[in-house]
Amino acid sequence: MAMATLSDVAKEANVSKMTVSRVINHPEQVTEDLRLLVINAMKTLNYRPNSAAKALAQNRTNVVKFLILEDIDTTEPYYMNLLFGIARGLDKQQYALQLISDRDKLNAGNADGYLITGARTKDSEWLDQLEKPLVLYGENRYGYDFVDTDNKLGETMATEYALAKNYQSIIFIGIDVKEPFEYSREAGYINTLQQNGLLPRIHRMANRSHISQGFINDHWAEFARNTCFVCASDRLAIGVVRAILAKGGRIPDDFGVIGHDGVFLDQVSNPQLTTVQQQVMSLGEHLARMLLSKIDQSGAQQGEVLLTPQLVARGTTRP
Amino acid sequence: MAMATLSDVAKEANVSKMTVSRVINHPEQVTEDLRLLVINAMKTLNYRPNSAAKALAQNRTNVVKFLILEDIDTTEPYYMNLLFGIARGLDKQQYALQLISDRDKLNAGNADGYLITGARTKDSEWLDQLEKPLVLYGENRYGYDFVDTDNKLGETMATEYALAKNYQSIIFIGIDVKEPFEYSREAGYINTLQQNGLLPRIHRMANRSHISQGFINDHWAEFARNTCFVCASDRLAIGVVRAILAKGGRIPDDFGVIGHDGVFLDQVSNPQLTTVQQQVMSLGEHLARMLLSKIDQSGAQQGEVLLTPQLVARGTTRP
DNA sequence: TTGTATGCGTTATCAG
DNA sequence: CTGATAACGCATACAA
User: Fold this and answer.
1) DSSP at A16
2) CB-based contact (8 Å) between B245 and chain A?
3) How far apart are CA A145 and CA B80, in angstroms?
């Protein structure tokens, strides 16, 4: 019992293949009665379109490539959710995914477009060479279409929350990369402090928990009680928490810590981390949808989408 | 400048399309000189086979579906590595992936086969209904082809290691599921203890760090010094570590803790976890390859593959 | 060993 | 609005 094809449905409904095809792709060009007839036939035959044939006829592949430019070992756990979001977005149009971690392999095989994450400023050179539509995950200032969390807003929320909880001094622990997402996060922090007549204090370092742990440890004398650390990532935040606890600091009474990312890492830390949570799955869906519509519109510019994050209050800030 | 096709290459090399096709799929049926001629032509034209056309002609889709039956929120971070491994395995034959988290959507769209993870005993009912080849990630005793870590060996290694480090009492903290992977892990522990004339002590609970933390806390009085906890997962192990530290127990001098999984979670814990590390990426590659060869062999049984894990000694056991 | 004809399932084009 | 025909790029079956 091979799969039913367009022709089978056509026979069943006593129409031509084209009518069936139109019912699927251009229903408005078909009269209502024929349309219903065909739909019934499709149901009784349990018709499933053959995506390979469709792809061939339309000069498509029904595949998009997802390129991850970061080191796999350092990839955040939330990528899993991102992937699920992407998968869900692609699903509706029966697109499949190809995961690529090596930019050299990007040109092997065919695809209709690219989703790219971890792109840094320097990557724009070869991004411009790509012949198919692409959408980035993560802010950029080179005009590429992208989807991201509203990083500035997120850190604004975090800083305001720290102020509302009456921490006197708010210190930003950032990641030492010169990339838009970091600038945006810092900007959210800086603006909020300035609006409250406070002076920003920013420390930047590699995004690893033992680094931030060491930093807090080494500079412990500089941090008065009643300080809240607003961190650019959950990793950094976890290290900060550990250092404070090791020094005998009391969380959240004397010290607050707020992370950023809010997927997974915040759950395994102890005490549980107050964090700026991203809607990662939703980000993935937006990514996929943006790319698909860009493909549909033969590469037309799509602009940017910034999703609103959410502050999740847990054990590392005052109740 | 459209993509070069078989015909283009054929013209360039002054042969027929079929010769070109043969050079790709059955090179042994073609004379050496023609073969080289064709290969050159392919290079100069930068020929890339059109996978949609290939798929259509062979009644394939060049897509495999990856079904994750676990709750996404509880998925382990190592899935990311698994996915990369799968992707790498699929890449060589230009297969693409479709991620599915809802078993109902398994039948939407087409695929050449299925990779399934998180399958439990009860799932065998509907697994049998599937018409395409499938390979499971994770042991099972229903005859499905599978790839997994050698769970029994892994826990054997962990238990032997604990003994070698002179912990007197070895306690197993397991997951309360009636599934083969858990039985195998327990078996490795039990056998090793019995061979050393010791009595097994097993506690089973939900696979969450705060559960194991609570358990150790509540039963603290029962655990003498010089005990090593061999845990069925890193999550459980992390909870155990936290509880011990909170009770003032000294790790690794008086208490040892060994986890299982060894991807990511072990890195963020403090102190860093001694753990049974799986070669997750390699597991993924094996999964993909097994499925692809099963597809090639029109569904022939592939058997099972058990990969050897590795014990990584870190801070939660004696040096 | 190589080439020719045909079909895979779908959509675009053009005719009715 | 509907249908016949060709085309997408490749592989199978058969013929030379």
Assistant:
1) -
2) no
3) 25
Asked if residue B139 and residue B238 are part of one domain, the reply reads no
Kindly indicate the confidence band of residue A289, based on its pLDDT and cuts at 50, 70 and 90.
very high
Question: By the 8 A CB rule, do B127 and B116 touch?
Answer: yes
Q: For residue A238, which residues of chain B lie inside 8 Å, CB to CB?
A: 268
Q: How far is A117 from chain B (nearest CA, A)?
A: 14
Q: Tell me the nt nearest to B56, Cα to C1'.
A: C8
* Probe site for chain B from A1, A48, A98 (most B CB atoms < 10 A): A98
A184 and A265 housed in the same domain:
yes
Number of H helices, E strands in chain B: 12, 12
pTM, 2 dp: 0.91
Chain B residues whose CB is inside 8 A of the A87 CB are: 98-101
CATH label of the domain that carries residue B219: 3.40.50.2300
Tell me the shortest Cα–Cα distance from B215 to chain A, in angstroms.
Answer: 16
Phi, psi of B29 (to 5 degrees): -90, 15
For tokens 């699929």, name the residue. B90
Lowest average pLDDT, out of A93-107, A208-222, B70-84, B140-154, goes to B70-84
Residue B168 sits in the same domain as residue B144: no
Q: Where are the alpha helices (DSSP H) in chain B?
A: 6-13, 17-25, 32-45, 51-57, 79-91, 124-127, 151-164, 180-195, 209-218, 234-246, 265-268, 280-296
Nearest chain B alpha carbon to A101: B84
Cβ atoms within 10 Å, residue A197 = 6
pLDDT in tens, A241-273: 999 999 999 999 999 999 998 766 666 777 889
Find the domain containing B123 and state its range: 63-148+280-307
d(CA A20, CA B183): 53
Question: Which nucleotide lies at the shortest CA–C1' distance from A7?
Answer: C9
Interatomic separation, CA of residue A104 and C1' of nucleotide C6, rounded (Å)? 38
Domain count, chain B: 2
Tokens in use for B97? 């992936």
pLDDT tens-digit map of A161-197: 999 999 999 999 999 999 999 999 999 999 999 999 9
Contact between A55 and B52 using a beta-carbon 8 Å cutoff: yes
Q: Does B167 fall in a domain?
A: yes
The distance of Cα B74 from the centroid of its chain, to the nearest Å, equals: 16
Please give the sequence-ordered ranges of beta strands (E in DSSP) within chain A, or none if there are none.
Answer: 63-68, 96-100, 113-117, 134-137, 146-149, 169-175, 202-205, 227-231, 255-261, 274-277, 304-307, 310-312
Q: Tell me whether residue B40 is in a domain.
A: no
